[in-house]
Amino acid sequence: MRSLISLIKNEFKQLNILIIVSTLIIAVWEWFLITRTEHWPPGLSFGLGFIPLFFLPLIMIFLAYNSYRSEWGNNTIYLLKILPRKGYEINLAKFIPAFSYYLFLSLLLIAANLYFNQELIARILTEIPDMTGRQFSRQFFILSYSAYLITGIQLYLITQFSYIIASFYNRFRLLISIIVFILSHYLILRVGGFFNYLFNWLPDFPVTVFMESPAGVTESTIYIGSAPFVVIMLIMTGLFFLNSRLIASDVDV
Amino acid sequence: MNENIIEVSNLKKKFPGVQALKGINLNIPEGMITGIVGPNGSGKSTLLKIISGLIIKDEGQVNINRKNKQRHLMQDIAFLPEINHLYRWMRISEMVKFHEDQFSDFSTKKAEELLDFMNLKLEQKIDNLSKGMVARLKLILVLSRSTKILILDEPLAGIDPASRERILESLIGEFDSANQSIILATHEIIEAERFLDHVIFMEAGEILLDGNADDLRAEKGKSIRELIGEVFE
After folding, report:
1. What is the pLDDT of residues A198-231, one digit of tens each?
2. CB-based contacts of A180: which residues, under 8 Å, 6+ apart?
3. Which of A127, A151, A236, B202 is the most buried (most CB within 10 A)?
4. pLDDT at A235 over 80
5. Is B17 within 8 Å of chain A by CB?
6. If you average pLDDT over every residue of chain A, what do you get?
7. B46 touches A: beta carbon within 8 Å
8. Does the beta-carbon distance from B83 to A75 stay under 8 Å?
């Protein structure tokens, strides 16, 4: 356990600058939007405040691509490969800091945006019927945020897999990575579709939705299958162990 | 007669456009310092990397300590690569701590003693070290482990004569022949010759000559350095 913690700390130290710079950029962006709240139409600042959420998955792609590329570039891949550690430990030490970064910054961003726009949110909640209150918001938030986290994990693992596959070749590594990245998404979609049938028996998530019409607001419940969530998590777990295995046992240095 | 700590049979490895190892057979005796000598591209590093589990062999068998499971044996091998494989942003103290956390057989006390002997300071940043200092640090980190097998790939390459002497002194001073075996690939045969117990001559992925250093000297009536000149002519 001490060895794993040491590896994780090592990775966190390498992410320090990125974390500080990203946090500062987000803070500056949020501060800028706060200063514009009075001048811009209601809700615009609030909406724009979520824009950095679209960049975080891109940073996950960057982190994943660099997770082993930097080790190769600095020859520290030798150090990792001679450690008496299993592949999944080395890969977990890479994944945990990257995912923590993604989780921390996205939560920070959402919390900051909600905090600085409390008045607007309160006004919106009073304008729509009581029944669309907290329960609806919580369900919506949890499902959307879970999907967002899964997207980040998926992009990270597929990018990492693409780079590892490309590292088997001496030339055109970037091109090979891009091709593998695209094909992997397609493959995961097909495999996921197949496995989805196997997990159809899993219970669905009930989600309350509201529809506004001239007759008023009507409430209904729709059901979102939990199978796709389970299947994608299983595929990602498999991909994580595949990446670990490739790094530990199959890639030459 | 020493038992063999490493047994290699019919080992082959091909890289794009070149057959790096052409079916090598060799035995490395336990408790000795074995030198692998040969020109650039002879396959020395490839051989050592395969033994250390860093690259995958195409064919053949490598038994380490009479076992054939590579990854489980990393705890028994301390490998020193030719290049600088250390995190440059770390200080020496952080690198020592990292090794202490990663290797159960690593002795921080021994590392500190060796750092003192090699004129290195714990607070120095690795990025600011000269090539000779990095070479000394790499060796210290390897020697501070009590593993059965030390594999050193060109530990003296590009190092100034004074540092070379210090490196060899520590290497020999710390060598415990009852419990350890050293495998050393080197070009610097002039300095290393006096320490070698067993010598393997390699060229173009093949072994040209392999034997006990004293026996070879006695049999051929020449020093290892002279023999190298003769073998590679």
Report:
1. 888 888 877 777 666 777 767 777 787 888 888 9
2. A161, A162, A165, A166
3. B202
4. yes
5. no
6. 85
7. no
8. yes
The answer to whether the CB of B185 falls within 8 A of the CB of B45 is yes
Q: What confidence score (pLDDT) does residue A166 get?
A: 92
Percent of chain B whose pLDDT exceeds 90: 20
Which CATH number fits the domain that encloses residue B214?
A: 3.40.50.300
| Residue A245 in this model has a pLDDT that exceeds 80 | yes
What's the rounded Cα separation, in Å, for the pair A204 and A222? 9
Structure tokens at A98: 């990257």
Q: Tokens at residue B133, please?
A: 């200092």
Reduced to 3 states (helix: H, G, I; strand: E, B; else coil), residue A82 is helix
Q: How far is C-alpha A21 from the geometric centre of its chain's CA atoms? A: 19
Q: B64: which DSSP letter?
A: E
Q: How many CB pairs under 8 A join A and B?
A: 61
- How far is A51 from A113, CA to CA, in rounded Å? 11
User: Which run of H or of E encompasses B36?
Assistant: strand B33-37
**Is the CB of residue B54 less than 8 Å away from at least one CB of chain A?**
yes
Helix, strand or coil, per DSSP, at residue A222: strand
Alpha carbons A47 and A52: distance in angstroms, whole number? 11
With cut-offs at 50, 70 and 90, classify the pLDDT of residue A242: very high
Number of domains comprising chain B: 1
Chain-centre distance for alpha carbon B106: 18
Bigger pLDDT: A94 or B74? A94
**Is the distance from CB of A61 to CB of A156 less than 8 angstroms?**
yes
CA B171 – CA B97 distance, rounded (Å): 22
Domain range list for chain A: 2-250
A203: DSSP letter: P
Mean pLDDT for the stretch of residues B16-41: 88
Global pTM value? 0.83
A84 and B84 in contact by Cβ < 8 A? no
